[in-house]
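for the recovery benchmark. tokens below, seq after
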């Protein structure tokens, strides 16, 4: 068994190698190949489907519960504010720069190091599955959803995302609504027709003022935000027959999407169509062994306003990892090298309390 220090040093090198390979969502072939090479070099039997790479611990047993260690290896595209080469994994003043370094490369390599640490151990209380998945940044169907179809039954998971190693026990769901108010076209000069824009404004006023009753202790209230409004009119003198608007709905763990939709449709005149109901709100109990272990080690539970692949997991999942979410998708993205070392140590210490 390699020491934690050696595993951490290797994790930093692996992250530098990953950063050097562009891995935009749906274009992760190169990093998937690198991850497979790392597995091979460490004597790990692995499988892959699409650009998802996964492996199980050496002494996997059908009679035990199974813990998934998961993070993603795809990235967004670099924004125009970059002053550094986004694929040059330079270490300067303790910072490892590069696209995907913070979101979520540091988490990925730290979880991989943790998996390597426990890979050969016998008599663990849990099986361990490691999965490096694709398409997280675009919530694509070729990522964790595809991988889960090929994995053993999972009982719980740690999802590697930058949380400053605190415990994201709840996560907002995201539902985008396309709303259409119908009217009747007419000439504005004669006040003809029925103005769909005015009907839409009445509904928008409801979205602006309505408050769902249940407030999450971690995520606060459900948030309704109208973000787009438009008609098809090009002429100033035509009463619009239709007005479309978009509502961004951030759902806490107290509500299902179905309950949110039922309330909305009972209170507005427009038609309401969700674009997707995949990115659901999630939570994991404070009493769950993963969370209890994290609290015992000094980490604090909180609610995360951002979505992740946790939303697509039909089992309890704790989001936790090195790095800071505030750095994600920023120009000249970086993670502190020390954060990776602390991440490996934190993951191993947490699992020692749960699976041994």
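predicted aa per position
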């Amino acid at each position: 068994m390699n020491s934690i220090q050696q595993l951490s040093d290797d994790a930093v090198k692996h992250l530098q190698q990953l950063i050097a390979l562009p891995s935009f969502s749906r274009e992760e072939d190169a990093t998937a190949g690198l991850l497979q090479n790392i597995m091979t070099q460490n004597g790990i039997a692995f499988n892959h489907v699409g650009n998802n790479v996964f492996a199980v611990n050496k002494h996997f047993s059908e009679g035990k519960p199974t813990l998934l260690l998961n993070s993603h290896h795809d990235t967004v595209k670099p924004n125009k504010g970059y002053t550094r080469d986004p694929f040059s994994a330079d270490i300067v003043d303790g910072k490892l720069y590069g696209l995907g370094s913070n979101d979520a490369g540091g988490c990925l390599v730290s979880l991989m190091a943790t998996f390597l640490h426990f890979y050969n151990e016998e008599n663990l209380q849990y099986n361990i599955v490691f999965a490096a998945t694709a398409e997280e940044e675009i919530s694509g169907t070729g990522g964790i959803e595809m991988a889960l179809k090929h994995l053993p039954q999972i009982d719980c998971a740690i999802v590697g995302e930058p949380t400053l190693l605190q415990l994201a026990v709840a996560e907002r769901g995201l539902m985008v609504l396309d709303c259409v108010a119908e009217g009747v076209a007419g000439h504005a000069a004669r006040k003809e027709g029925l103005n769909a824009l005015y009907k839409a404004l009445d509904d928008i006023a409801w979205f602006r003022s309505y408050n769902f009753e249940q407030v999450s202790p971690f995520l606060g209230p459900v948030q309704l935000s109208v973000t787009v409004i438009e008609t098809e009119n090009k002429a100033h003198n035509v009463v619009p027959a239709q007005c479309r608007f978009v509502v961004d709905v951030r759902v806490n763990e107290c509500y299902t999407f179905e309950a949110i939709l039922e309330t909305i449709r009972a209170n507005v005149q427009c038609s309401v169509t969700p674009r997707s109901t995949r990115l659901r709100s999630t939570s994991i109990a404070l009493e769950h062994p993963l969370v209890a272990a994290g609290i015992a080690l000094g980490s604090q539970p909180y609610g995360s306003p951002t979505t992740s692949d946790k939303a697509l997991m039909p089992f309890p999942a704790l989001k936790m990892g090195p790095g800071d979410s505030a750095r994600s998708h920023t120009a000249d993205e970086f993670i502190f090298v020390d954060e990776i070392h602390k991440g490996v140590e934190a993951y191993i210490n947490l699992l020692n309390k749960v699976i041994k």
